[in-house]
Amino acid sequence: MASFMPDGARAQFDFSSLPSSQARSYADEFRSDSSASDSEYQHALEVVFDPENTHRRKSSMVTTDNPKLAKRSTEKRENTACFVHHLLERQRKAPKGDLSNLPEVKEDTKADKSAVTNHVPATNSRLLTKKQLSDMAWGVRELSKRLGSVRLKLRVKTVFLLTKAHDEGLIGYTQEVVEWLLSKDRETPYIVYVENTLEHNHAFDAKSIIAKDPPREGRLKYWNNELCAKHPLIFDFVVTLGGDGTLLYASWLFQRVVPPVLSFALGSLGFLTKFDYSGFRETLTTAFKDGVTVSLRLRFEGTVMRSQTKGKKRDLVEELIGLEAENDYTHKPDGSYEILNDIVVDRGPNPTMSAIEIFGDDEHFTTVQADGICVATPTGSTAYNLAAGGSLCHPENPVILVTAICAHTLSFRPIILPDTIVLRVGVPYDARTSSWASFDGRERVELCPGDYVTISASRYPFANVMQQGRRSEDWVNSISRTLNWNSRQRQKSFKEWVVDEQEGRNQRESEDEREKGKT
């Protein structure tokens, strides 16, 4: 992945959880797969958020099992080397409207790659102050505008290949792409990672791929979920073969730093898959040689917060927006997820409606009696949000879409909120049943009475590779092509209507005369 590094910060890698011999082996392999040089590993970017002007509730501030350690979370530092996130930090420090601090972003700029510290936990966006969250969201928007008008040249050595899961018909396409990337005709000896389930797949036949050219051995490797989560910077570029669901799976695999993702359309609809597979050779050659245009897609960070006061008579509204005692920590986090489409809180297998409380920052918005609530990103506006009656939204809009699913009321309407708000969607203590939360349709978890989910703009946007020169019309073309948006017969002009009316009158008169002649 492309990145820029400031001087003076040292990169670190955490292999302490592995046996000593395995750690040395894995560290060596990690360095050999990456396109960064040894000197580049001596630098990394530090992103530090000041803990001043704390805005979040204490119930959301707890980041460990020990509440006393919660205040120390804002003092932790995170090293990141992702090209996009380095520019976000530069954008955060620059005065608003001043883009002179981003000299690296210009036409055909080449960028280097460095490393990231894996053992230092990232600062969750729900822990940021209101000003920090606003500045972060503004930085993402400004950077997205700049990246949409330039072409980034990346030093690609390691390619991550993701194929639509459980589709045997795509294995042949995967094999074709792998053989092309590993071919000796390529100027760069690419290292290609495919899913570990293909290692012993007879249709993929990895042994025959290696046998055709023995030097390929060692350049065809296999990834699993753990590798993607812990060491995303091994990969310089992601190529997906499938539909929108495959792209969502790529977002799910890379929960923090996301390499640039180029998607070939082999699915059904294809809102996000912009490239035709039949021209994959020309597409990849151009991308690696001349650079790519990147669109930053807003992602949400969703965190499940578990109530610590079960058995007591409590009020969720009072706990989240009322006065709290000095050390009264009512909830603790139980998993955080980065999502690209939507977070849905619904009734799950329960036969009755869900009672759901919705909060925005320190304000109680409303209580909803419905089958559920869909909180969607602009990218996800054409998914479940659309089916629930929500608004269509261009992916560059900095908003959060909130739509009720079968609300038992005539007055609830979908609402659109700014991405600087931290939403909380919870189950009141007096609810008859629990609810269930899902994140991009995955990791379905039960929310018992008193539990809630925080939803905020993520610090890790999704870098989607776009076709050159088609940024503005791609989305409108997608909804017109796949959903037949505003498709109807065109109304005739008045002149055409008069002519047709006269022709119809003449035809009727002719028919009447023929009928009279018969009689």
UniProtKB/TrEMBL annotation:
Keywords: Kinase, NAD, NADP, Transferase. The keyword Transferase applies. Residues 14-24 have a biased composition (Polar residues). Residues 1-76, 488-519 are annotated as: Disordered. Coiled coil: none annotated. Residues 493-519 have a biased composition (Basic and acidic residues). It comes from the Eukaryota. It holds the Pfam family NAD_kinase. HAMAP family: NAD_kinase. Belongs to the NAD kinase family. This is ATP-NAD kinase.
